[in-house]
Write a structure and sequence with these properties.
alpha/beta; D-Maltodextrin-Binding Protein, domain 2; 2 domains; 11 strands; signal; C4-dicarboxylate ABC transporter substrate-binding protein
């Protein structure tokens, strides 16, 4: 009897050790803190659903931009200092522009996955030690916050516009002057007139209170704001098939459900911005119909220049599948 009990206890202990060895606690580096809506909607939900679907086998610890600056995060994840990255494709243009092209692709998560685009992007990042996990749309694009309304030129002629690399080509096409500033300086720069406006996703004015220092927001909006989630390739390869499948299942579901959350949020955000005092200023009649194509052209230019043959293939496939305006 004693031998039987000892054998049972030993078997149970081995099972526990095995389960413990398979369980994985991942670290995810985010380019934004919780003030940016995409973090609670996508990262927060990913962490929660992953733990639930894996029965606690997979857990994620999130680290924000205070750990590593947003534009310097790709290499630490590729090098294995962190397991995952939640970011925007424009934040690592110095290394590759591949994921940036997603902002010029039609906002349809199912059509995107069926097109073969994700396989191209994944292959590109795998050559850099990373695995594409998911692409998460904010169901809205970009605009400019301005101190003064659009004038007779119908564009941004002569205005100093705070813009990251995402918008450089478009600002120049609209005859504006690019001013490079970190997001933390947008408020004070608008307040003091250092810049005449700022380019940003349509979400942000409320969280960062930019409506206090700007009076107008441009319409129509342009492009589609996308966030990408990547994983260190060695980490990915070290997971079991079941763990990999669970991660991809959660990501695919969240691409659809999270986008719907953002579609609802966008309607509320737009109303809130106008209620806070931001007035809509329209691009001129000769400019307004072109802003989306203008933005897409600038995006694809950077993708081709910074991702080489892979970027060319990405653009070609998006055109063939009818998923881009340029």
């Amino acid at each position: 009897m004693l031998h039987r009990l000892l054998a049972t206890a030993l078997t149970s202990a081995c099972l526990l050790i095995s389960a413990s060895a398979q369980a994985k606690d991942l670290t995810l580096l985010s380019s934004w803190d919780d003030n940016y809506n995409a973090v609670p909607v996508f990262v927060g939900q990913f962490v929660e659903k992953l733990k639930e679907k894996s029965n606690g086998d997979l857990s994620v610890q999130v680290r924000g931009p205070e750990t590593v600056p947003p534009f310097e995060q790709l290499q630490p994840v590729a090098g294995g200092l962190f397991d995952m990255l939640f970011t925007h494709g424009a934040y690592h243009l110095g290394e590759t522009g591949m994921a940036f092209g997603l902002d010029a692709v039609k906002d349809d998560p199912i059509a995107r996955r069926e097109s073969g685009i994700y396989e191209l992007i994944d292959k590109h990042y795998q050559s850099r030690g990373l695995k594409l996990i998911g692409v998460f749309s904010s169901a809205s694009g970009y605009h400019f916050l301005l101190r003064q309304p659009i004038a007779e030129d119908g564009a941004l002629k002569g205005r100093k516009i705070r813009a990251s690399a995402t918008y450089h080509d478009m600002v120049q096409e609209l005859q504006g002057a690019v001013v490079t500033l970190p997001p933390s300086e947008i408020y004070s720069s608008l307040e003091r007139g250092v810049v005449d406006g700022a380019a940003w996703p349509v979400f942000g004015a409320m969280e960062y209170r930019w409506y206090e220092v700007s009076d107008y927001m441009t319409r129509p909006t342009f492009g589609v704001t996308n966030q990408v989630m990547l994983m260190n390739l060695d980490t990915w390869n070290g997971l079991s098939k079941q763990q990999q499948d669970t991660i991809m299942e959660v990501a695919r579901e969240l691409e659809v459900s999270g986008r719907q959350v953002f579609a609802d949020l966008w309607a509320k955000e737009d109303a809130a911005m106008q209620e806070a005092g931001l007035e809509i200023t329209q691009f001129g009649p000769n400019v307004a119909p072109k802003v989306d194509a203008m933005f897409a052209e600038g995006v694809w230019k950077q993708v081709r220049n910074r991702a080489g043959a892979d970027g060319e293939a990405f653009h070609k496939l998006a055109v063939e599948k009818g998923l881009t305006s340029q």
